[in-house]
Amino acid sequence: MRRLCLPLGPLLYLWVLAHPVQAQESFICQGDFYLALTDGAVFTTVYEIGIDSDSGTVDFQPLNTATTGKDLNAMGFRSVDNFIYGVDAGSLDVYRVGKDGIAQTVSELASDPYLQYVAGDITPDGRFLIVIGTSSFQDEVIGFIDLDSPTYEYTEIWLEGPEVRSADIAFDPIDGTLYGFDGIHHRLVTYDIHTGVVEADFPPTDQALLMGGLFFDAFGKLFGYGLVPGENVQQAFYSIDKETGSVTLETMGPPASRNDGCSCPYTLGLELSVETIEAIPCTTIPIKFEIANTTGITQNNLKLEQVFPESFIIKNIDSPLEGVLTGGGPSSNFFTLEGLSIPIGLHELTVSVELTAEASGAYSFQAELSGLPGTLGYVLLSDNPKTLVKMDSTVIKVGELVLDYSRISTQICSPEGLALDPGVPGADYLWSDGSTEPTFQVTSAGNYAVTISTACETIETNIQVDGVGFEVDLGPDQQIELGDPVNIQATVSPSPDGSSFTWSSSVGGVSCTSCTEITEVPSTDTWYYLTVTDPEGCATKDSVWVQVLNDREVFIPTAFSPNGDGVNDQFFIYSKRPAEVVSLQIFDRWGNLLFQRKNTDTNDPFQGWDGRSQGRPLNDGVFFYLARLRFLDEQVLDYKGELVLLH
User: Fold this and answer.
1) Which of 88, 78, 91, 84 has the alpha carbon at shortest distance from 38?
2) pTM exceeds 0.70, yes or no
3) Which residue from 54, 74, 427, 568 could staple onto 131, CB 3.0 to 4.6 Å apart?
4) In Å, what is the CA distance from 206 to each residue of 26, 223, 247, 382, 616?
5) Residue 518 to residues 363, 441, 488: CA-CA distances in angstroms?
6) At CA 274, angle to CA 273 and CA 279, rounded to 5?
7) Cβ pair 491, 542 in contact under 8 A
8) How many domains does the chain have?
9) Is 530 exposed, middle or buried (0-12, 13-18, 19+ CB in 10 A)?
10) Whole-angstrom Cα distance, residue 135 to residue 90?
11) Buried residues in 220-252 as b, exposed as e (16+ CB within 10 A)
């Protein structure tokens, strides 16, 4: 892999000396997400991303009511000094952003002028701002801006692998993997910053078209802000499974025509979770404390404190971390661990809590981790991972031992059967066949008896299961040529009478949303979806991937003979797929324009050149052509060459 070094040169060095960076207030690194949004022209405002606790939607809080005055892109958070660094998409200046939301120039990026730099992040060690150099078609290079260098030296390596184009990238704080989201094929990808190799082993998704901003939290969870299929602005907040590449729409936020994102995941994280938010008295439930340390060093002399409601009695504390229990513990409702050492990595502490017979209602509680360095905020409150709201309390609702039949799925919707789940956490179960598992697998309709008990009470009930499932199959994935139709038929077996069909696609609408089959002419790779719902409301889904092969193959003759014999009398352009000839020009060897025709089609001899100029036939010789073609996908390409005229 060849690595290119593009020195800044003496002029830039003098520029750096003449333009010292003014004092800026740094951020506090507590896992916050930041998004730079362009105002529709060229100027960018940097926002801190939050989730509104009332509406559950994304909330943008500007760092400054004014814009940065720059077109900030390719940005990353540097945990070494707690500043955001990025590149001006227009001037290619390198900027540093502080807590006040103002961008200050620190360098000029001496890079390839034909490339754009929209995706960026800081390496985990804080040394390099990594940027992806992108052409009009795909990512071309990985660029390294050395933030430790007084002149911000820039080097780059060429990318190798499949065609991808990411609008943003982000480093995993757990293992250092660099991820991007490919906007061409709508999939998660990875970049090797040492070799330049791009891996695209993840499947395409039908949930998002691109991600203008990618963010990691301290636990290695990946999020993105991007574009929903069928929309033309980015306003969707996603969670992304970095193991499978699957994308889940979590909530919506303000629209953005263009954005870039970063986060500070190199910090301490504390999550407090329970398996279910609903419980019943006289049961013991495990409460899990998860602590992430991605700061790069062991954090010592910390204190973890937790006070539970009075009706929560601690039975056991299971901790793998070094620390001293200085208050509370078993038989109480609180504990304090001091002198806590938290090594690098992810750690789990479990506290078993018994709910007393008097427990009733909704309870919220939150842990506190203190003794952190000032750069990490001194004190960290726990976060409930079941919500998107940052540092919110964990909630448990305690109620009576009552079975809510409306919340139990009793309709068999597939041949695999149905898992009956009464949903009573912490209780003991006894099913009609002697099974004591919390769930019971059934494959046929019938009446199933179950006994559910705690130390306080017992209930006996029967659960009625109805119906037999059906399957929907749209067949195997398909490939078509651009411009060709594709027919998609659904096989429903057994087909329930009175079923309804609902079609959709990853690019918007379809020609018929309620037909039993559809015929479409997609212009790009597309997912098609069908949901079949029976009269009882049991729905089954399937999808099919249609890949559109964009063949731009053309044939331009190198000679023709306009002698009137009906063979090769016209010079015109052939193409495998129809294309528009935006212009066709013929010149002689001295550059004189002899023939011109515009806005015609390929494969049409009557729109070609007949070897005449101003109505008179020309003598044999060598001529030159210039042609501009527009293909079905709106791609415009130019062609030129020599042409021999022989009578």
Assistant:
1) 88
2) no
3) 74
4) 39, 16, 8, 34, 59
5) 52, 37, 5
6) 150
7) no
8) 5
9) buried
10) 14
11) bbbbbbbbbbeeeebbbbbebebeebebeebbe
**Domain final position from 494, 521, 549:** 549
Q: What is the DSSP string of 505-538?
A: ETTB--S-SS-SEEEE--SS-EEEEEEEE-TTS-
Say if CB 44 and CB 70 are below 8 A apart. yes
d(CA 322, CA 301): 10
C-alpha to C-alpha distance for 231 and 152, rounded to whole angstroms: 39
Q: Quick: pLDDT tens for 182-239.
A: 999 999 999 999 999 999 999 999 899 889 999 999 999 999 999 888 788 888 999 9
Tokens of residue 197, six digits: 């190799």
Asked if residue 632 is part of any domain, the answer here is yes
Q: Are 258 and 364 contained in the same domain?
A: no
List 167's β-bridge partners, or say none.
none
Which pLDDT tens digit goes with each residue over 575-625? 888 889 999 999 998 888 999 999 999 999 988 999 999 888 999 999 999
- Residue 369: how many other CB atoms lie within 10 Å: 24
Which of 517, 549, 581 is at the close of a domain? 549
Alpha-carbon span 236 to 226, nearest angstrom? 5
Residue 609 maps to which CATH number? 2.60.40
